[in-house]
Amino acid sequence: EEAFDGGESVPAVTAAAEEAFDGGESVPAVTAAAEDFAVGAGETDERNAASSAVTALSRVTVTRAAYNGSDNTLEWNSVENATRYQIAKMKRGAGVYTYYETAATAYTDSQIVAADTYYYQVRAIYTAEGQPTVYGAWSTTKTVVTMQQPKVTLKNKSNGIRAEWNAVGGAKSYIVYYKTASAAAWSSVTTANTYYPLLNVTSGTLYYVQVRPVGVKANGPYSKVSSMTFIGQPAVTVSQSGNSAVLRWNAVEGANLYEIAYKEKNDAGFLYKFTHDTTDAESGLSADCEYYYQVRAICDNEAGGSVSSAWSSVKSVRMMAQPAVTLTNKTNGIRADWNAVKGATQYTVYYKAHEDAKWSSAVTANTYFSVTGTFSGKVYHVQVRPAAGKVNGPYSKVSSITFLGQANPKGSAVDTALSWSAVAGANQYQIAKKAKNASGFIYFTVQDTAYTDHAENAKTDCCYQIRAVYADESGAETYGAWSAVCRFINGKALNGYQTDGGKKYYYQNGVLQKNRIVGTSGEGYYYADGSGVCCVSEEMRLAAEFIMRCGKGNTLDERMKTCFKYLADNYPYARFYDHPKSKKDIPALAIDMFKNKKGNCFRYAACFTCVARICGYRSRIGVGCTGNGSPHGWTEVYMDGQWYYFDPDMQLPGYGFPDYYAYKMSRHPWNVRTTFTSEVTLSGGKAVWN
User: Do 263 and 272 meet the contact criterion of CB atoms below 8 Å apart?
Assistant: First the structure.
């Protein structure tokens, strides 16, 4: 304690405080009657003093009065001329003393009871043959409580200082006194435990603690004063950087050193190292291994002592492997693919054009990402970093690719001749050819942007695809995405509607059209799905025709919005009572609306549900009633991750709402209640109402 405190004198609890705690009890001195008894019958002090060679003895000073766990031990100084010593003993509450004599300057009293209080006085005696007995004055009264002195240890914990001590026999509770070094007064608390946590402590501050046991009849001795500087627990974070684990923690007030415990998951025990910094990096770690870390703060003082905080909570990091990224040119940009990294929950993708100064970034849970908005002939760089929560893995190597746009071939009406526009950045083109009954494609390369196939089988049924190629000086090649298929029959590129396997398709300059409305006003309009199959269901055919005739704009989104308003403005409301009972009733309602150009809410809803599906959205009709119970129908369209209400009937001019008020509503103002919904999908050239 002295070494830790630098020799500082720590005040104990004062005698005044002890008296106050004991209730101010007055301890009786040895009575005159007891002294007369000891002197001897009929003898007086005057006679003794007149005839004795030794006329006076010094007062005894008791140097020790303590309980050792089984006995009370007294020690005192040797008094000149004393031949023996008399001990007066009284048990608390007894009212009378018992006397013992000894020639020694110490006495062991084994006639005691645990957890009680005893009072002792000692005086010197001189006796010699033929001479009267001389008595010295009684010593001051010494009190011994037959309870052990507790031994207190202090420990820094995460939220304060924990004081612990041994259980004292006979104690029913303990008073804990505590204060800071700078405080004048002690605080105290009573507990039945053999520990006490000091909370709301301040890091870097010195605290004193003293404990006193409390018995039924007596209070035990105070412990020695224990002291400790509270050192707060550091808050640690760990992250991965390359093949290193990087630890960071807050500076702890009062600390001038930090200890780091670290281990790999399967190691038997921790290793330790020290630093004066609040960060540390452990390098050379293995991928897909988990590592554990703890940090504690230390205060080293000039006297060589030290005190440590509680260890931080254990932090772990699983070293994630470096992802390997591959880049591929696609129709609408560059696709980055990489291997799944064990332990990663997401990936940050960094990308930029070669000449750009700053990187753009995006976060994804997938192992792929599409870089869009690219320009043909430009070089792009991509880098990927795995992460798990706040822990980041190593960056991938930077991958680069020259983006090559997609060639758009056109087939001629004669000689199996193809042509396409030059693709920026390409210096050659690869052509893939497949005859109808051939087992696979054959490939050849050209430098021009046109090709005529003179092969014998070119006059049969052949399909062609083209992709741009950039070959650098080393011979390494970068490929663009394959074009759409261009189909020739008998040397002529297909055009217009074609029937194959009972399904209708539409070709333009030999290229099969997909995901769009195809045809002309003369040929008729249909919607071709992602496979190029035209939907021939009547309600969808009429919807495609309605969009092309009434919708305005360059995109299907724009046409969908103008079709919504056109319905409300130009197809008047007409009352009908054939309300739909199930999904099988929906197509007829849509067909009637398209053909007769008037209808009720259910017809508006069925009609616009078809329009929204052809424009590329999931759509469904809602059938039910308004909040006041009136039958009602509406459309719901799935956008931005949720279903929105679209209600052409609500947009009718008679209601007086602003334009597009009832277009894309997150909630319906009429508080509609749904009886059933039916979503329309396209499959094999037919509309399916689910």
Answer: no
Query: Exposed e or buried b for every residue in 268-291, given b needs 16+ CB within 10 A?
Result: eeeeeeeeeebebebeebebeeeb
Q: Which residues contact 635 (CB under 8 A, 6 or more apart)?
A: 605, 608, 609, 612, 619, 620, 621, 622, 645, 646, 647, 648
Question: Tokens 């680069």 — which residue?
Answer: 400
What residues does 363 pair with on adjacent strands? 348
Tell me the pLDDT band of 6, cut-offs 50, 70 and 90.
very low
The tokens describing 649, both together, are 């009937």
pTM across the whole model: 0.58
User: What are the residues whose beta carbons fall under 8 Å from the beta carbon of 658, sequence distance 6 or more?
Assistant: none
Residue recorded with tokens 């279903």? 643
Label residues 296-316 b or e (16+ Cβ within 10 Å = b). Answer: bbbbeeeeeeebbbbbbeebe
CA angle 309, 311, 314 (to 5 degrees): 160
Tell which residue, 288, 285, 382, 365, has the closest CA to residue 329: 382
Checking if the pLDDT of 399 tops 60, the result is yes
With a CB cutoff of 8 Å and minimum separation 6, the contacts of 210 are 12, 13, 152, 176, 177, 178, 186, 222, 223, 224, 225, 226
Percentage of the chain exceeding pLDDT 70: 92
The residues, ordered by sequence, that sit 6+ positions from 577 with a Cβ below 8 Å of its Cβ are none
Q: Which of these, 656, 654, 553, 571, lies nearest to 608 by C-alpha position?
A: 571
DSSP notation for 363-378: EESSSEEEEES--TT-
Strands 346-353 and 379-388: antiparallel
